[in-house]
Design a protein that fits this description.
Distance between the termini: 57 Å
Mean pLDDT: 89
Low-confidence stretches: none
Number of helices: 8
Length: 341
């Protein structure tokens, strides 16, 4: 009997998770009050047709940092489950061809994730076929953040009602704006080059300037554009390159890498293949994926192993990392609160 094929190692991708509360607060500012409960509240579910998404076995852990300081890495790790129903309409028979055969069965594919709060980086791995993707992770987290935000507003409102200076909910929402979340995959120069091999010509390249978790991009151009965006209170700012005859691909790769290696800008491009077929792509299409072997079974050990995979790629310059100067202080305060609870 022939040997069974060796299963392929799972694909691991890296992303920048940008969570903001308007222009006033970022992820770490309201981690205890809103962000962490969005992951750990087991009652939170997002339903879409016959499918329900929820976080499962989520834990908050501390692991040693790799920078030689006493600042720990605080990580959130667990699974995103896609509880759904698989349905078939027909089967194929050698004798009868396509035969109607309706049947359905429950299925619950899952992905394992690690969010490093120190740098807002998300490490994501499908555990099964048909596992929920990064976009579904973002949509589910946005829903859960909204629910926990409203609960926090309600708690502040109730507290204010019994104080000498009660506040309406409208004022509380102005002081603490509604959260938004974006998950932007990280790319390496090699993953961008590989994706662009299919393009004979790139005719449109666009960078959307977004607000981040107080991370500062490496490229001065994006830094200045973000300042301009903020100065005139623009809700959307874009840098666009267009050329009907085709942009310079080598320089396009450099500019895409500067934006997508740290997940600080949304990138989209269009062009054509050698035979004239229209092609397009974005951060999700040219994301960096790795296939690590021998991942630990223990989930905390697995999470720590995946964090090291990310750190190794930052150290080697494959992907970039920019972290705000006050992050260490916020992490130390959060660590103290978590130990007190």
């Amino acid at each position: 009997m022939p040997n069974a094929p060796t299963p392929k190692a799972p694909a691991v991708s890296f992303a920048n998770l940008i969570c903001r509360f308007g222009d006033k607060f970022v992820l770490l500012d309201l981690a205890r009050e809103v962000v962490l409960p969005a992951f750990t509240d087991q009652s939170l579910k997002r339903r879409y047709r016959d499918t329900t998404y929820f976080f499962f076995e989520t834990k908050i852990s501390e692991i040693p940092g790799s920078d030689g300081t006493n600042v720990p890495l605080i990580i959130v790790h667990g699974k995103l489950v896609k509880d759904t129903v698989l349905t078939r309409e027909q089967v194929f028979s050698q004798d009868r061809g396509l035969v109607p055969a309706q049947e359905s069965m429950p299925s619950a594919p899952s992905s394992f994730f690690v969010l490093v709060l120190n740098n807002h980086k998300l490490i994501y791995m499908a555990e099964t076929p048909h596992a929920p993707m990064l976009g579904q992770f973002q949509t589910a987290l946005q829903r859960f953040l909204s629910i926990r935000y409203e609960a926090y507003v309600d708690a502040l409102y109730s507290e204010a009602k019994s104080s000498p200076e009660p506040k309406p909910k409208k004022q509380i929402r102005l002081e603490i704006p509604h959260p938004t979340v974006e998950v932007l995959p990280l790319a390496s120069k090699a993953s961008i080059e590989e994706f662009l091999r299919a393009f004979a010509k790139v005719t449109h390249l666009e960078f959307k300037i977004i607000e981040t978790n107080q991370e500062y991009p490496m490229e001065r151009t994006y830094q200045e554009l973000r300042k301009m965006k903020k100065s005139i209170r623009a809700t959307s700012t874009r840098l666009v390159h267009d050329s009907a005859v085709g942009l310079d691909k080598a320089n396009a790769i450099e500019q895409i890498h500067a934006a997508a290696a740290s997940g600080n800008e949304k990138v989209s491009l269009t062009g054509t293949s050698e035979d004239g077929v229209r092609l397009s792509g974005d951060n999700h299409r040219f994301k960096l994926s790795v296939h690590p072997e021998g991942l630990p079974e223990n989930e905390l050990d697995r999470a720590a192993h995946l964090v090291k995979l990310y750190a190794d790629r930052v150290e080697s310059g494959i992907i970039l990392e920019d972290v705000a100067a006050d992050t260490s202080d916020k992490i130390q305060r959060l660590s103290g609160h978590l130990h007190d609870e």
